[in-house]
Specification:
By secondary structure, the protein is mainly beta. The chain contains 1 helix and 32 strands.
């Protein structure tokens, strides 16, 4: 059990929000894919065993993967969670065993990566990142430190500068967090306490705990906020449920919706919300499946999507939305590739689509561009 939990803690629902990325401005400099800049987008996965990052171009229509020229790229020690900034210029990667975050500049034509040193220091065992929609602040969740490091981002260089007062303390051993689209509230999930903690976010990025923690299910692990900033979703790994909490738009306070927590698949471990906020998907690590629900926009009540649960390769551990809304990507415990599923825009149903070339070792983090 402990070995499995250690593996699972590499993966976070805070990644579980929609990641923006990089699109090429060149019609042919696309890593050998031969398609125009408007027909492909970039994706990167982190490989902690060889300490590298592998990059792909993904065809917008077919979903086919093509390796980027020069990939894989060297990274820090045990790279994990990763994200791109909204300007599609920079990639940030957490190095879990060296307690740093790396900044990579993305070549706008090829998609190749160049690391910009020095790496920024974090707290102990950083495991999740999130960023404001404007791309001006970066937040890092430090599991062993029980803290959140906050950095301002230079818009020209992408460089990180830790703000005054950072790192901000949390309850010991946080496992995931999610920032609201407005950037006003940050929610932190704690598995040991089976609770979600609310923090207000000042204009400077400073954090202040607000209100009492909200109880959720046993083994609460992954957390996500819908793009309409109405609901918070928490995957409860130990009791096979998902908690749905409504957000007070003024205070950020959370209230559990009627009937929550709701039953889902076995060992839910990752959760994402569609860009429309209409659907929520949960990766069930123990059930080799993904459960999907449509969400009532007024009450938050979930209704199973026809065909759910959907079969998933291996033991799924991380779900990542494609910003275009056509695909969902799945990373699994034993998969040395990225599994791709198509998303039916009218029903929310998932279907197996494609997969990336072999990555040799198991990827644990993924960032996808537009």
């Amino acid at each position: 059990m402990m070995a499995r939990k250690t593996t699972l803690l590499w993966l976070v629902a805070s990644l579980l929000a929609v990641l923006t990325g990089c699109s090429s401005s060149s019609s042919n400099s696309n890593g050998g894919s031969g398609s125009s800049s408007g027909s492909t987008h970039l994706a990167y996965v982190s490989l902690p065993s060889p300490n590298t990052i592998t990059g792909f171009r993904i065809n917008n229509s077919s979903g086919a993967f093509t390796p980027i020229v020069g990939s894989p790229f060297p990274a820090g020690n045990s790279p994990g969670a990763m994200l791109m900034d909204p300007s599609n210029q920079f990639l940030y990667v957490l190095n879990r065993t060296e307690d740093t975050v790396s900044l990579f500049k993305i070549d706008s034509n090829v998609g190749s990566l160049t690391e910009v040193l020095p790496r920024a220091s974090t707290g102990f065992s950083p495991m999740a990142m999130t960023m404001t929609s404007a791309g001006d602040m970066l937040f890092v969740l430090n599991q062993l430190s029980g803290s959140i490091s906050v950095y301002s981002i230079d818009s020209g260089s992408g460089a990180l500068a830790e703000i005054k007062g950072s790192p901000f303390p949390t309850v010991a051993n946080p496992v995931g967090f999610a920032l609201t689209p407005s950037g006003k509230f940050l929610y932190v999930v704690n598995s040991n306490l089976a609770a979600v903690f609310t923090y207000t976010v000042a204009s400077t990025g400073a954090l202040q705990q607000a209100g009492a923690p909200i109880p959720v299910g046993a083994g609460a692990f992954a957390i996500a906020v819908d793009p309409n900033e109405k609901f918070v979703y928490v995957a409860n790994t130990a009791d096979d449920t998902v908690s749905i909490l409504s957000i007070n738009s003024t205070t950020g306070d959370l209230t559990e919706v009627n009937g929550s927590p709701f039953d889902t698949g076995t060992s839910p471990i990752s959760i994402v919300v569609s860009s429309s906020g209409q659907y929520v998907y949960i990766a069930n690590h123990g059930g080799a499946s993904i459960t999907g629900y449509s969400i009532d926009s007024a009450t938050g009540f979930p209704t199973a999507i026809t065909g759910s649960p959907f079969s998933a390769s291996g033991a799924p551990e991380l779900l990542v939305n494609d910003p275009g809304g056509n695909f969902m990507y799945v990373l699994g415990q034993s998969l040395t590739f990225v599994s791709e599923m198509s998303v039916d825009s009218s029903s929310g149903a998932l279907a197996s689509k494609s997969q990336s070339p072999d990555t040799s070792t198991v990827p644990v983090g993924m960032a996808v561009g537009k």
